[in-house]
Amino acid sequence: MSSTTPTEGEDLYGEGRWRLMHQRFVSETRDAEPEILWVGDSIIQNLLNSRIWETSFCLMHSLNFGISGDRTENVLWRLQNGELENLSPKMIVLSVGQENYGDTPEKIAEGVQAICALIRSKQPQAFLIVLTLLPRGNPDSPLRQRNRKVNEMMTEYVKGNSRVQLVNIDTGFVQVDDTISHHDMFDYMSLTQKGYSKAFEPVNELLTQLLQEMEGEVGRTEAEGAAD
């Protein structure tokens, strides 16, 4: 399985839930008018149940297209098959790559970059925000090392691109002894309510800033038009 080859999500139990979620997302594109579109895996899907979603992101006219367990190739397939149609969001937030088990950091970064390229092609007006992969497991976890390397490659990828920004959401999850607190990640991978608030506060600050700047630009344009 290639990280850059669009692939449908696995239907492990014959329930068709992945396909049902995708179909619902496509249906939502026909009626919704989000200012912010959220795309990705479990971190995005479970964000729906967080306090910071309820108190901040929901109020920003957000639409959540997260599916737990999605790999980069699954998100690519979804975005190529209707989830970016009919919409014109001001911003798109992407978090994906942590579920690409068995892939090298290079392959994961390639997959994330392929998604970025697709989003920029289909939604050129949208400012793209890519989230870093979080630390996980014990200090010697190979997946923690993998995620760190992916973040390093994505940092290089976004350099010089004024329409794409990488946001570091690791706001102190690794303690002085290199461990992760269960208060932040209850299973040392999945975010708690406290963990979501910590991780997504930088995202909240950036989105708030960008929305204010965009509204200011619209106001200036309308004023200039009235003056003419």
3D architecture notes:
The protein is built from 7 helices and 5 strands. It has helices at residues 17-29, 42-47, 51-55, 72-80, 105-122, 142-158, 193-227; strands at residues 36-40, 62-66, 91-95, 127-131, 164-167. α6 links the parallel β4 and β5 (164-167). α4 runs parallel beside α5 and α5 (105-122) packs parallel to α6.
Indicate the structural class: alpha/beta
- Described by the principal axes of the CA atoms, the overall outline is globular
The helix content, as a percent range, equals: 40-55%
* Low-pLDDT stretches: none
Q: Which labels suit this protein?
A:
228 residues; alpha/beta; 5-stranded parallel sheet; 7 helices; 45% helix
Give the arrangement of secondary structure elements:
Elements: H1 17-29, E1 36-40, H2 42-47, H3 51-55, E2 62-66, H4 72-80, E3 91-95, H5 105-122, E4 127-131, H6 142-158, E5 164-167, H7 193-227
Helix pairs in contact: 4-5, 5-6
Short summary of the structure?
The chain has helices at residues 17-29, 42-47, 51-55, 72-80, 105-122, 142-158, 193-227, and strands at residues 36-40, 62-66, 91-95, 127-131, 164-167. With 228 residues, it is α/β, with parallel strands linked by helices. The mean pLDDT is 95.
